[in-house]
Predict the structure of Trimeric intracellular cation channel family protein.
Amino acid sequence: MLLYLLDLAGVAVFAVSGVLAAGHAGLDWLGVVVVASVTAVGGGTLRDLLLDRHPVFWIRDVRYVYAILAATALGIAWVHVMPLPEHALALADALGLGLFAITGAQVAEERRLPAVIVMLVGTMTGAAGGLLRDVLTARIPLLLSSGIYGSAAIAGIAAYLLLQAAGTPRRWAFHAGVLLIVALRLGGIYGGWHLPVLRLPA
């Protein structure tokens, strides 16, 4: 039940990040709904297709669709009532990345897949929706920028797996993994943390 509720929360948070990105791009309300929906279900859909889970999660359970629509409506209402806080999109994306990366890793983990596959599936689950959102709104994808993003998901999932291997209860390992991802992502936003950049000689 906890995994299910957190998955719903991740969908809702990513939908809000899609609303904010669509607002910055000046899309109409239909465009906002499309971008929010693609952002919310993109990573989980890729996860389910890769793991041969049919039907995909949002077709199997319509409550995910309701969560997306509710979060989208709230997001639209929010931006019309009060100004957007600085970095609002990045903050929503950081939380969605943390929740989706670890829940995606847990789904792969339940299939008893190797740890490296669990990390890859979790990272794709967390990052694919944001990648699609950025492409649709003509932004340089956060996944491909020099800031901490995909690497934060990898680090958080690795911590989650290592903590469990050391005997930490799964629930606490989950929270630790999510917090690490969010903390690293916020470090990239506010602290300028980034991986080394490849620069080829001219």
Remarks:
- The radius of gyration is 16 Å.
